Amino acid sequence: MEKTTSAEAYLQKHQKRYKELETLRNILKNSELQETIKWGCPTYTINGKNVVGFAAFKEHIALWFYNGALLKDKYKVLINAQEGKTKALRQWRFTAGEEMEEDKIRQYVEEAIANQKQGKEIKPEKKELTIPPELLQKLQEDKNFHEKFNTLTPYKQREYAEYIQEAKREATRYSRLEKIIPLILEGKGLHDKYR
Predict the structure, then answer these.
(1) Quick check: helix, strand or coil at residue 29?
(2) Confidence (pTM)
């Protein structure tokens, strides 16, 4: 998969939704936000902090606000796309260009910018790292693997541990362990290829 390097390249990849994506991009570019690419999608920041981003999906376009839970949402358009997992992120979904009311979108973007400037943000909860038995056994058996695992960020360590833990069957947990060993030895995170 070719890595997206600019917002324009992202729009070009999504010709079917080009016009709607361009509308969102123009609104965001005409604000004080800085345009960048994160996780393969156009993302807009202020003072290095993520504020808003957008992406095209098969059935809709999503405009997401990184601290959207703090927005007033006076038009009741924001949703939590991952109930129970996501605390701060909120999405506004559009299935057609006619649904995009630029004035309303600007209001939400301006409020998100103001919140970020004021330092309002929802901090992620610190999760304890629970190492599943299959991974723990491998860490105890292989010193090099253990050292490489310890060089990973806590986020990446937790990502791998949860990946194994989520499997219901023991055979699946072991097959997932075998899959991640080379990634850990290379110092990569589970989902780095998407970032």
Answers:
(1) helix
(2) 0.67
